[in-house]
Amino acid sequence: MTTDNNSLTPEKVPPIYPVKTKMQVTIIFFVVLGIYLLSMFWTQRQMAGGFSGAIGNMFTVIEKFFPPNTAVISAIWGPMVETIQMAIIATTIAAILTVPLAILAAENITTFRPLYILTRTFLNILRTIPDLVLAVIFVGLFGIGLFPGILALVIFSLGILAKLISETIESVDMNPLEAMRASGGNVFQVIWYALIPQVLPQFTSLVLYVFEINIRASVVLGLVGAGGIGLILNQQLGFYNYPNAMMIIILIFIVVIVIEYISTKIREALL
Amino acid sequence: MIEFKNVGLVYPNGTEGLKNINVTINDGEFVVIVGLSGAGKSTFIRSINRLVTPTSGSLLVDNQDILKYRSSNLRKLRTKTGMVFQSYNLVKRSNVLKNVLAGRLGHTGTLRSIFNAYKKEDIGLAYESLKRVNIEEKIYNRADELSGGQQQRVSIARVLTQQPKYILADEPVASLDPPTSHQVMTYLKKINKEDNITTIVNLHFIDMAMEYADRIIGMRAGEVVFDGPVSEVTESTFEEIYGRSIREDDLRGGADES
Fold first, then answer.
1. What is the distance between the alpha carbons of residues A229 and A252, in angstroms, rounded to a whole number?
2. B110: which of A216, A224, B87, B257 is 20 to 30 A away, CA to CA?
3. Cα–Cα distances in Å, from B116 out to A11, A129, B101, B158?
4. Chain A CB within 8 Å of residue B47 CB
């Protein structure tokens, strides 16, 4: 008898979501909210000075860093180029190595399950190691320089690339592959003729994306001794030569923006 | 010659795709297999080039039991049986010529095909095949720029380039409009007659089956329920095959337009 103002629904209408689902979602929402509040509370307690202290420190820091010393540009240009080269070499090697790995980690191509699971697990382990840890290990093994940095970047980007590309491979149209198989193509021919053309644009785009990541990562890796501009930045900070350090930071900033802009444009044209 | 001897196929999920099939298809025949969807037409046709593998009986192609074949034999078998699909199955981002050349994969070594180093004769053959289905002017277009009918013609050119002994066509006209359907069927029939290639086509349109087939095989629930020359087929035969009366949508129509 609740239908006084709504004569179109004479009986009880079903809810859009089942009551059980509604309850579950509500509980999950409050649990997540609780976790947020708790972690906010704890991090606040850890922060010694709070926000007010940070603003005061900021002026002191800015004062030390400015003006940047433009005279060092010619001296830091070399290491900057080294950093870019590091990223280029690492991305190229990773892009080549990723092809077999991505194919072996794609469920629709590697129908032999143990091999698929093995590759997947290997890639998962690869991805759990942070690039900084890799760099520290390799610098310890091979000494300070570009080589350990390149090695760390290769392994780091291989983890990301192979994962993303294997997922691209899993989403391709399988019909052309069936047609190639039906016309007598062997495994390699089927992959080369029906699979590669389908994933090539995404592959190129992802490689460029990982290249962008590698440029930034190679700067950070330099801080732990893996060569390039990061190494110089770390030295200058160590000598308390803040104007020089500022100039390096500005140069990195410009280079990263330019490379990202170019790479984004290329990727837009591809897809 | 293709001989099915007591062939049965049970899918891993327990569905019976084929039940005790006994059929002999002679060289040069144009056979149309009719039946409702799920009747086992696709399974039948895909058994011949081992895209699916029957689980019992024996299947002889040129007097050899293909059910025992492993990789290299399988490749030879597939090289001599070309296939046309309902969804054309072209590589959409590749150009027409490259798609057609894929028909030579079974005849070409891995390295040669990976470096696109096809023999001159092969490229000539691909172009000839495109000419035969009147689509040679689209040679450098990307496959996805073509209409459905054009794509199916390219896929027929691919099969021709393969120079097969058998052509299997799995619902080749199901995604096309009536005039284009007739065009595609006409090409298949022409190739069958001119090159003497045994052709097996799955169809569910009664009128098209009657128009193009030499022989009709009717399937229902994985079994062959009719097998005979087209002259013996009447409307009641189809009602028997389909297990119900004939409806408007069992006909493609449009025979007069093309």
1. 8
2. B87
3. 70, 40, 9, 16
4. no
Average pLDDT over residues B198-218: 91
C-alpha distance from A185 to closest chain B C-alpha (Å)? 5
Q: Smallest Cα–Cα separation from A244: which of A17, A119, A76?
A: A76
Mention every residue, 6+ apart, whose C-beta is less than 8 A from residue B257: B178, B179, B182
What is the reported pLDDT for A60? Answer: 77
**Number of domains observed in the structure of chain A:** 1
- The arrangement of strands across the sheet holding B198-203 comes to B81-84, B166-169, B198-203, B30-34, B215-220, B223-229
Whether the CB of B85 is below 8 Å from some CB of chain A: the reply is yes
Examine residue A162 and state whether it is found in any structural domain, yes or no: yes
Q: How far is A183 from chain B (nearest CA, A)?
A: 5
Interval B125-144: pLDDT, tens: 999 999 999 998 989 999 98
Say how far apart CA B116 and CA B101 lie, in whole Å: 9
Q: Residue type for B44, please?
A: F
Phi–psi pair at A69, nearest 5 degrees:
-85, 100
Helix (H, G, I), strand (E, B) or coil at B198: strand
C-alpha B43, offset from chain centre: 12
Is the pLDDT at A61 greater than 70? The verdict is: yes
Q: Does domain B2-90+166-250 have CATH number 3.40.50.300?
A: yes
Question: Which uninterrupted H or E stretch holds A67?
Answer: none
Interface-testing mutation among B74, B89, B118, with chain A (most A C-beta atoms within 10 A): B89
The 10 Å Cβ neighbour count of residue A172 is 19
Residue boundaries of the structural domains of chain B: 2-90+166-250
Q: Are strands B215-220 and B223-229 parallel, antiparallel or unpaired?
A: antiparallel
Strand ranges inside B66-187, DSSP E: 81-84, 166-169
B83: nearest CB among A182, A198, A201: A182
ipTM of predicted complex = 0.84
The phi and psi torsions of B81 (rounded to 5 degrees) equal -120, 110
Burial environment of residue A248 by CB neighbours within 10 A (0 to 12, 13 to 18, 19 or more): buried
- How many residues comprise chain B? 258
| DSSP 8-state symbol, B204 | -
Which of B23, B85, B123 is closest to A181 using CA atoms?
A: B85
- Domain residue limits at A204: 77-270
- What's the CATH code of the domain at A249? 1.10.3720.10
Q: Is the pLDDT of residue B158 over 90?
A: yes
Interface check for A192 against chain B (CB to CB < 8 A): the answer is yes
In a domain, A53, yes or no: no
Q: In what order do the strands lie in the sheet with B2-10?
A: B16-25, B2-10, B56-61, B64-65
Q: % helix / strand / coil in chain B, to the nearest 5?
A: 45, 25, 35
Q: Examine residue A67 and say whether the peptide bond preceding it is cis (omega within 30 degrees of 0).
A: yes
DSSP label at residue A52: H
